[in-house]
Amino acid sequence: MKTTLLLLLSTFILQANSLANSGPDAIVGEWLSQEKDGKISIYKQGDKFYGKISWGKTPGRKDTNNPDAKLKNRDLIGLVILHDFKYTGSAWEDGKIYDPKSGKTYDCILKVKDNNKVLEIRGYVGVPMFGRTATWTRS
What we know:
By secondary structure, the chain is mainly beta. The protein has a single domain, classed as Lipocalin, CATH 2.40.128.520. The chain is built from one helix and eight strands; from the N terminus they run αββββββββ. It has one helix at residues 2-21, and strands at 29-32, 38-45, 48-56, 80-87, 92-99, 104-113, 118-124, 131-138. It has an eight-stranded antiparallel beta barrel. A hairpin with a 2-residue loop joins strand 2 (38-45) and strand 3 (48-56). It is globular.
């Protein structure tokens, strides 16, 4: 009886800890890009989440691939590339990601994995099935 009670209590504590670590703010913090050439700082503003480039391997880089000529001279450091994400209980959805390498903006879904150490980014046009996934690691 004691063993069963101890097992149930341990399971409850582990599940509660897991839920606490995967709530809406689990995404907030610094993330290292898949290529390890940039860091993105994700933050919450109101009930939505955003991310801006906080570090780059090549300082002074500009947004040269932007299709809008007026924006080509803006710095990449400080540029908000994740916009308007809403937490849905298991992922952050309904947001957009801007890819400075291509100058394109995509619909996007974000998910944390591996005890909040990995961020899976799924960028797509129209349907998530026809997209590309990148993985960022917590910095």
